Amino acid sequence: MESRKLAVTGAVAFTPRTFRDERGVFSAPFQQPAFEAARGGPLFAVAQSNHSVSRRGVVRGIHYTGAPPGAAKYVSCVSGRALDIVVDIRPGSPTYGRWDAVQLDGSAPGAVYLPVGVGHAFVALTDDTVMSYLVSAPYVPENEYALSPLDPALALPIPKDLEPLLSERDTRALTLEEAERSGLLPPYELCRELEERLGTPAAVRDRAVGTRV
């Protein structure tokens, strides 16, 4: 399995080997040894798995979990095609304000790892695009935030031949600058601390982080 560091600090794209024959395709989009080598640490405990189905042109994001608790994500495309986008929204990060994009294809599965505090968005390039997420924290509505994927300052690479279809929440979301002024973005140093503790038991991790927040 090949891994590639993205332009956002801590984010990694993974490309597994794909085996094809007359029956179809087999691949392993998650492989623990390759993941831990690329991340530089142990596998995070998976608290929840998510599954979405989107029609062509749907844009979901930019979504992120406030820190604490923060959340890491491992995202893959099960069917269809998507442009997966990672956005560094962590003030203090060396790549703050940058984004990178990876095309994920269900017929040749790859994956993207998003460390704690990094924003996530994707554009469905086909109908019935199915995305799968492994997440390090359970969904708690009051911890979840959104930024505008149409923020002109970010200029995300949404294909020009698509009419973006957004939820009401994403349509009304703040720009990156507005969210920073409002103090809603997760600080880079706190995100790094939370990231380092992903491999520790939850009770120990929560006590340790609680001493800083």
UniProtKB/TrEMBL annotation:
InterPro entries: RmlC-like, RmlC-like_jellyroll, RmlC_Cupin_sf. The record marks Y139 as: Participates in a stacking interaction with the thymidine ring of dTDP-4-oxo-6-deoxyglucose. GO terms for molecular function: dTDP-4-dehydrorhamnose 3,5-epimerase activity. The keyword Transmembrane helix does not apply. The keyword Isomerase applies. The active site is at H63 (proton acceptor), Y133 (proton donor). Keywords: Isomerase. GO terms for cellular component: cytosol. One of its GO terms (biological process) is polysaccharide biosynthetic process. Belongs to the dTDP-4-dehydrorhamnose 3,5-epimerase family. This is dTDP-4-keto-6-deoxy-D-glucose epimerase. It comes from Streptomyces phyllanthi. The lineage of its organism: Bacteria, Bacillati, Actinomycetota, Actinomycetes, Kitasatosporales.
